[in-house]
Amino acid sequence: MNEGGEHRDAADQSASGRRGxxxxxxxxxxxxxxxxxxxxxxxxxxxxxxTYWAEHAWLPSGIASGVAIDVAGGRITAIxxxxxxxxxxxxxxxxxxxxxxxxxxxxxxxxxxxxxxxxTFWTWRQGMYRLAGRLEPDSYHRLARAxxxxxxxxxxxxxxxxxxxxxxxxxxxxxxPNAMGEALIQAAxxxxxxxxxxxxxxxxxxxxxxxxxxxxxxxxxGLESWLDRVDRLxxxxxxxxGGAVHSVRAVPEEAIAAFACSTEGRPVHVHLSExxxxxxxxxxxxxxxxxxLLERCGLLGPDLTAVHATHLTGRDIExxxxxxxTACFCPTTERDLxxxxxxxxxxxxxxxxxxxxxxxxxxxxxxxxxRALEMHERLVSEERGRFTxxxxxxxxxxxxxxxWADAGRIEVGARADLVAAALDTPRTAGIDPSGIGYAATAAxxxxxxxxxxxxxxxGRHATIDAGAExxxxxxxxxx
Length: 479
Hints:
Distance between the termini: 25 Å
Largest sheet: 8 strands, mixed
Number of strands: 16
CATH topology of the largest domain: TIM Barrel
Structural class: alpha/beta
Strand content: 15-25%
Shape: globular
Number of helices: 15
CATH architecture of the largest domain: Alpha-Beta Barrel
Helix content: 25-40%
């Protein structure tokens, strides 16, 4: 969405049962001995060999039945189709774990709260700023932990967190200047997800405008200060530290160019051309489109993901293709904010890789994001079948856009990320397994394995009561 402690490995999470409301937060640093024992037991189990048997599984070669998937050390070691049930049974159809390439976790607390009087982008923006001003490291951890648990229930195994709530509301750094980012890293570990923390450079309130008061906590004052702070971030095994330019509005041209030289080799994301007004303002300030400005600054490239990419010219599309840049669409947020419908098919036809994200988390459902990519194209083109089922699956498993190139496929050597979706619910009963993307919702997901560890079983998170924790974390922010 274009508006603007101690670490533990994600493997250190318990799979010994659902957490009750009275247990919220008990696996944070300083937890009791029983929680530590459960984590220790889980850590040992992650390295033990196990077998999952999928009734149906979507392999790189297509859908197969009776698939035994051997796992050891968090990776797939063998795949054996057409076998009898064995090991841990995954009913329905098993897909690779989903990659949520663009998230603002704290926006989840805005869900259902920005539509009074029909709601506009500006009522949403005002609510977002009020919410941002109320968060601090502990409350952010409680909220993000529950949001990431909701994502786990939706089959997401990697999340790209576009993070710009860096400092205290008045703009002063916390005693630990990365306290907010570390809260997100810990929250992902609690929920059992991998996280790419896309620590965001945010220096201006618009072209040639200083930060507004509500934006002061987003800024570091300059690129060098941002680099110094980010260099202090520690990435445990379940995390990657990436970077982001918030937008061409929020970072001056010279800073974008210097940023591009300073972040080579790490995943980098940017909000790009989400709204027509951004394009018009960029042309007025720089005489070019936002994409052309990024090309001039040297930011386009295989490590970059352009988020939204809604209002592009033909030249913009060609620049993204030639540079190897990925485009991340967030259809449920883009329609919630009335941003428009981006040229997804034109980008794909040009050879641009597509990813998907939940962005504002108004909806957390990767089936819906992928389905919307197709359905929005149908509305624009008045044609069906704009994307194949395989293309839509690839978009929602684009883990490489987050730096996890060894995830997103059910194949030997890949990370053991498995998502089982039921084929016997009121939504999916009677469908051909290949049609799962057109019928299922997140509610149809029964089991999720991330890096070989089951984090969702029979539709319930292994350690977090997501509904109860979401309710508690959000309520405290709006009291």
